[in-house]
Write a structure and sequence with these properties.
Elements: H1 19-22, H2 32-42, E1 48-51, H3 58-65, E2 69-72, H4 77-87, H5 92-112, E3 115-117, E4 124-133, E5 135-137, E6 144-146, E7 151-154, E8 157-159, E9 166-168, E10 178-186
Parallel strand pairs: 1-2
Antiparallel strand pairs: 3-4, 4-10, 5-6, 7-8, 8-9
Length: 188
């Protein structure tokens, strides 16, 4: 059976990548819906598609979705690895069990990183979340400016609370980030 040689006469507008293509930002990735349209137009289910430069695997994934047999080759081992990961069979239940097992094995170690003292009663507590702010030094008066507490005048532009002059953050000295808020779960 020969492939049709009739050209595609209607435009195909590219669509944003779906999650499978966002798992790795492979350079030069082509729009999946364009590849899908080409495969649908020029091949039939069961046909073999050879992609000798498979890269991020778009042709391989779309070919499998459309029930074609696919062969992907690339000199770059990372390209082959990415493509294999995109198309491998996955037992979702086994994945969930593995994630749960890892969570249980590491829970105590990870939770230790979030231990703190309750600011209200002083007993042991667990940090739920924190809010941090970037700190810059005002180029006019050299005072530390906590940006989240300062008047924002525009993108990257603030008013210094000490001298009331405005400044942009590009190219000025930056201090250590400062914790502004912390929410904890207290055991008491």
């Amino acid at each position: 059976m020969t492939c049709p040689t009739i050209p595609i006469l209607t435009p195909i507008e590219s669509q944003p990548h779906t999650p499978i293509y966002r798992m790795h930002r492979y350079f030069a990735r082509r729009p999946h819906n364009l590849i899908n349209a080409l495969i649908q137009h020029y091949t039939r289910p069961g046909d073999v598609i050879l992609d000798p430069f498979c890269g991020g695997g778009t042709t391989i994934v779309e070919g499998l979705r459309l029930k074609r047999k696919v062969i992907g080759i690339d000199l770059n081992p990372m390209a082959v690895f990415i493509t294999r990961c995109e198309v491998m069979n996955l037992d979702v239940d086994e994945l969930e069990r593995t994630i749960q097992a890892i969570a249980e094995m590491t829970r105590d170690t990870i939770n230790e990183l979030y231990r703190t003292k309750c600011p209200k009663c002083g007993c042991e507590a667990t940090t739920d979340w924190t809010t941090w702010s970037v700190v810059y030094f005002c180029p006019h008066c050299n005072q530390a400016v906590v940006t989240v507490e300062s008047e924002k005048l525009g993108p990257g532009k603030y008013r210094c609370p000490a001298c009331a002059k405005s400044f942009t953050v590009t190219g000025i000295a930056r201090g250590h980030d400062q914790m502004i808020r912390q929410h904890v779960s207290c055991s008491a």
